[in-house]
Amino acid sequence: MENMKYVRKGRKGDNELILRLVSILAQGQTEYLIPLLRQLNTTEKKKVAVLLRDIDRLKWEDYSFTPDEGVEDCLAYSRFVCFSKSDIEYIKKDEESWRLFPSPEKLLSILEWYRPNWFTDYYNELFEQNRIYIPYLYLIQWKRAGLITSTPPARIADIFPYLFWINGDINQPERFLIELVTFYPEILEDICTVFAYPCDVAQQDKSSVLHVGMPYGPITTILRQYSRYGTPNRMWILKESLAAHNRGFKKIQSGWYADLFMAMEPSCEELLELQNELLSSLHSPCSKGVHTALKCIKRICPEKTFRSNDFIPLVPMLLSSSHKSIQVATLAVMKLLAQSHPCQSVDKESA
Question: Can you tell me the distance from the alpha carbon of 298 to that of 332, in angstroms, rounded to the nearest whole number?
């Protein structure tokens, strides 16, 4: 047989297994490979691993392989099932070693019947070091199965917004979101990470096809709807939306928090409770954040519990802003403040 030339000396007892595997790999026949891999015992896996390491040394001419997608898939499945922890320790030195294994989407079918003892440590390390992209829904399923145990919040924030990058149209986007959150309640916890770390939350929330037919983007919609039931906490969302203005995010991300804050439609009572955060937002380098804070302060400045003595010292800074809209908004607040608290204003001016 022609394939016999691929069997090296010292493996005569393994000829049948190796020949069969070589034939399947060479033709990229995944449908035949998986049943074979499921039957291998520990000793056979070690023998197959030797063959795979030979192939990975790029000795393609010895095995007559054409590296098309089918062949690559078969090799990836075989490595995942047959490689030992010592093999992983060797190959993970390569920055792109994850490419040697099936994609997260394809791994799920294998993980149903086989999980190597090196899996969790290896993928946790890759995920922590930002060396592999795991789609958010697959990450949830891996976490549920105990495959991924270390999930840095910054990495979750990085991938979470892309949950809503959907191809095609969704006829009932609000119903789709409800079903999505019902099936994956982890969303309500992980959504909070977008307030603390740089991410593409603004772009994905505004550009998602789910925005079509809804007044707000999917992320804003979830926060609005589910905060009514306490998860996430509504006041927490309002505070974090204001605090995020001073976290050094890019302009588009900082602006998104201002839009979210207004979309939450805070009441006067809530704004009075948020005076610390509103006053802090006036120092934000994001003009949209400053303008949003001034707009809210204008609503509550006539109230008796408004802290005018804390606001007035900030007026010179606000009036020196390069943004005319901030200057105009500040003067509008001062005018209303003078009308509502004439004694306080006069006393301050006299001082």
Answer: 8
